[in-house]
Amino acid sequence: MAITAGRLESMNNRAWLTVTSYGADASGTTDAAPAIQTALDEARDRGGAQVLVPPGVYLLGATLRVYANTRLSCMAGAELRRIHGGTMLLNGDGSQAYGGYTGHGNIWIEGGLWNMQGTVPGLTSSAMCMSFGHATDITVEDAEILDVPGYHAIELNSTLHGLVRNCRFRGYIDPDGTRTFSEAVQLDLAKSSSVFGGFGPYDHTPCEDILLTGCHFGDSDTEGTTAWPRGIGSHSATIGRWHRRIRVSDNAFEGLLQFAVSAYNWEDVTVVGNTFNRCGSGVRLRSVIKSDPEDTKDVDGNQTGESQVMRNIAVSGNTFREGGGYDNVIVVQGEASTGTVLNVAVTGNAIDGSSGNQSGIRLNYASRVTVADNIVANVDNTGISTENQNNTVISGNVIWNASDHGVTMVSSVNSNIIGNQIRDPGDTGIFVNGPGSDIQIRDNFIDGPNQANTGSQAIRFSTSAVVGIAISGNKCRPGGSATPGTAALSISSANSGVHRYGNDFRGSWNGTAIQDSSNAPETSATDIS
Q1: Coil, strand or helix: which one is 403?
Q2: How far apart are CA 178 and CA 6, in angstroms?
Q3: Which of 100, 169, 223, 258 gives 184 a disulfide partner, CB atoms 3.0 to 4.6 angstroms apart?
Q4: Cα(514)–Cα(522) distance, rounded to whole angstroms?
């Protein structure tokens, strides 16, 4: 909570360091950085203190250095306005060499409008607002960070126990067209001076136990700015290191250009209770990109040429409206062989609308995944699309009016599609293609496939072989469309080991309801067509 004038008098009777008492100009006329730094230095020399910034406009002509055990409190109405080309706030000195999490920590930044002025001539080069590295216990709350050029509003680098709460990230400028991927809040590791320029050592320390909650990400309405490309995420990695225990909750992402949340090489992650409105993509879970020559190096700088698995992620209870255009709304993207994404739950989300030929939920190179109890409506491709995955359960989802398929499962093994409601897909309700094995499709309701009049079916096993198929208890209807599907069930001759029973395929299909050309299917008279 920002400090109000009514609390100031009692504070001044305690060990509070008020920056105006050190000569900081609050009128926005002269550079206040030297006086504010003097107060921060005294807090350091005391072993810690609270530094108070009263209402006013404070010009910053140099980077502020904040040290261990310091609380920098900006009162309501305090604006810190950058007038130099660098970072606004950094924890510690450039000459320090604290490794791991042993640097300046137990730092609390609260309140204030931090105005980077990224459209002002002379201030348009890429820069950071706040940057923290090799630290433990970093909190930033109730701050607004405005119009950042190129880099990040907040970088948590090599940080243990970080909290970003109730902040507003508004306005971004890509100075030269090369920073289309910047995150408002970046989690990074101490990899090199090009990744983190504040100070060393570059020991590849990652971030752990980070909470981002209650924040807003969007645009600022300043001419020449956009909303952020990404809200929170990472875009560099080291083989043998992961960011772990990352929680993203109860934030609002609005109009972001790319991924609102980009969990790159993160483990033990929850993304819960957020709202995403008109974002290019909502949530991406991504293992290390195998083709990236820098990210596939190990801690000794050796080129491995490989990715690495990432695991234990839940994306639950979020809402997405009018997303897509850049990528699918929720993306789980691994790498072949060494970069599988493991142990993922995508549950209880509501997706309403996508554009740019993007699906609602997309899995590729993932294993041990549950996609359950989501609502996916009005997407401009497939409702739930999966490929190159195994041991996946897709259950209890409601998929409405997908422009392509309802659910797809391609090159998959040991996976189930159970108890979903699929209405009016443009193409097939459930589409399965090999190579694959041991696929079960059970207790689904599919109504009105073939809305795009593509000659599609309710359930289709296509032309690449799947071995070991169980199809039971499904109810498929042609719907009220003028273009009913050509069949309730279509299985090509490439497939084998089919066992089907107890399905209800009644209705006026535009062809034979059951078209099973598989090799020696095992069937039951209880199928109704």
Answers
A1: coil
A2: 46
A3: 169
A4: 14
Residue 407 in contact with residue 368, Cβ under 8 Å? no
pLDDT tens per residue, range 101-128: 999 999 999 999 999 999 999 999 999 9
Q: How far apart are CA 16 and CA 50, in angstroms?
A: 5
How are the residues of the chain apportioned to helix, strand and coil, as percentages rounded to the nearest 5?
Answer: 5, 50, 45
Mean pLDDT for the chain overall: 94
Distance between CA atoms of residues 280 and 388, nearest Å: 24
Which residues share a beta bridge with 24?
none
Structure tokens that stand for 164 in this block? 């970003």
Residue 308 has pLDDT above 70, yes or no: yes
Which pLDDT score is estimated for 8? 41
Show the CA angle centred on residue 220, arms to residues 174 and 142, nearest 5°: 110
* 509, HSE (Cβ side, Cα atoms, 13 Å): 25
Give the integer Cα–Cα distance in Å for 201 and 203.
6
Calpha distance 84→273 (Å, rounded): 38
Q: Which helix (H) or strand (E) holds 394?
A: strand 384-395
Around Cβ 305, how many Cβ atoms within 10 Å?
Answer: 12
Residue 16, CA atoms < 13 Å, CB-side half-sphere:
18
DSSP 200: B
How many residues are present in the chain? 529
Residue 5 has pLDDT above 80, yes or no: no
At 34 the three-state DSSP class reads: helix
Q: Dihedral through CA 409, CA 412, CA 416, CA 421, nearest 10?
A: -10
Task: Give the tens place of pLDDT for each residue, 509-527.
Answer: 999 999 999 987 887 656 7
Contact indicator for 329, 357 with CB cutoff of 8 Å: no
* 13: its two tokens: 């009777």
pLDDT tens column, 469-495 = 999 999 999 988 678 899 999 999 999
Name 270's Cβ contacts closer than 8 Å, sequence gap at least 6. 246, 247, 248, 249, 313, 314, 316
Q: Does residue 3 surpass a pLDDT of 50?
A: no
DSSP reduced 3-state for 217: strand
355-380 tens-digit pLDDT: 999 999 999 999 999 999 999 999 99
For the record, the structure tokens of 285 come out as 């879970």
**Token pair listed for 381:** 């491709």
